Amino acid sequence: MSWPHLVALGVGAIVGTGILTLIGVGADKAGPAVLISFLIAGFVCACAALAYAEMATMIPASGSAYTYSYVVIGQAVAWVIGWSLILEYSLVVSAVAVGWSGYAAPLLHASAGIPMALMQGPYAGGVVNLPAVFIIAVIAGMLIVGMRKSAAANAILVLLKLAALAVFVFVALPHFDTANLEPFSPFGFAKTMGPDGVERGIMAAAAIIFSAFYGFDAIATAAEETKNPKRDLAIGIMGSMLACAAIYTVIAAVALGATPFTRFANSPEPLALILRELEQPGAAHFLALSAVIALPTVILAFFYGQSRIFFVMARDRLLPKGLAHVSRNGAPVRTTMFTVLIVGTIAAFFPLDEIVALANAGTLVAFSAVALCMLIMRRRAPEAPRGFRTPAAWLVGPVAIAGCVYLFASLPQQTQIWFLIWNVVGIALYALFGSRHGLAGAGPQVQEAAA
């Protein structure tokens, strides 16, 4: 792949569930001040993206934060980061599939008469979310065919998704009313528990919609399938972040100004709902249909990253080496099919907000590790060749780490407990298998890239 494919991969991963579905979850937690939540989450992600861009050009090998941690810090820490990345990518794929189903289910119910009970999990009064499982299986098939063909289709779908968002702005902007932004911050800044038992506040919202901005890290997992990684990875990471920051600012502001946030808070299809509230059913139908067609670009990007993390960890013998097998066209079929089983089960039965919160926990740990690796390499090898150098690294790195720690503290307490349990299981697996079978050093591709 070249840098246009990588930018499309990044934009496809970033612009998706965060703005199409999570804006409703964020508005429920922060009200109109969710705009501030977007800015905070975006700023922390931008700092992390700068660190990623430098590390990706120094170590252009698949594995993202896992590989950087392996090379810079060591195997044990790399396992923890890889285990966190597995959590992140698995849950994001599941979350986006659930978000996709939120737009697809009403269309399928109206056109084909499929019972809603078969398109919603038990949390919503249904039985199983079959559309979410279906779209995961379709994307897995695309990845097995081969990533370059999938990347070309991904670029087309990204353009469709951006066109749908442009239609939303065109239709909703004339209805912008500043009165809809008052009171601007009804739940305050810090995370607080409401009388209904829901944690709210600007930071509580930022900790959830943080996932609206990440996705650029999926680009780093494509290092070994990139034509000129030392140049193209930095362009892909920073280009996609800048494009998405501008898109999010416009969409969120228009959505909150066009309709009182209470009308679309926690809706599974908030932007389409806003258009229906504005008596624009045709535009709402177009946006919902576009989301159904284009949201799979997000699943594609993260599913790609998940299968590559499994592949690299298996190549380093931290997971069973059979998972590192690739097909004739270079696709890791076994890891892809194994991932289908995991993410499909999660998407079938669990709600969006809980999935996203736990995914964010894994991401925040990985982002902190990348920023730390960047700082260590600045001290250890300040003159080493870098295709991209982070400006003001000794400011950007600590800000990224501190921001990630604060966002982690702002996650729901239940999420933090589940994340602790996940890592206890991970450490046990490492002690039983990874520490005994893992290579003494990183795999040959990683060693060559690091050199």
Task: Explain how this protein is built.
GO terms for molecular function: amino acid transmembrane transporter activity. It holds the Pfam family AA_permease_2. This is Amino acid permease. With 451 residues, the chain is mostly helical. Strand 1 and strand 2 form a beta hairpin. The chain has helices spanning 3-14, 17-20, 22-30, 34-58, 65-72, 75-112, 130-145, 147-172, 202-209, 217-220, 229-258, 261-264, 270-277, 281-294, 296-315, 333-349, 352-380, 393-409, 413-437, 444-450, and strands at residues 192-193, 199-200. Helix 3 packs antiparallel against helix 9 (202-209) and helix 6 (75-112) packs across helix 14 (281-294). The chain is built from 20 helices and two strands. The protein is 71% helix and 1% strand. The protein has a single domain (3-441), classed as Amino acid/polyamine transporter I, CATH 1.20.1740. The protein has a two-stranded antiparallel ribbon.
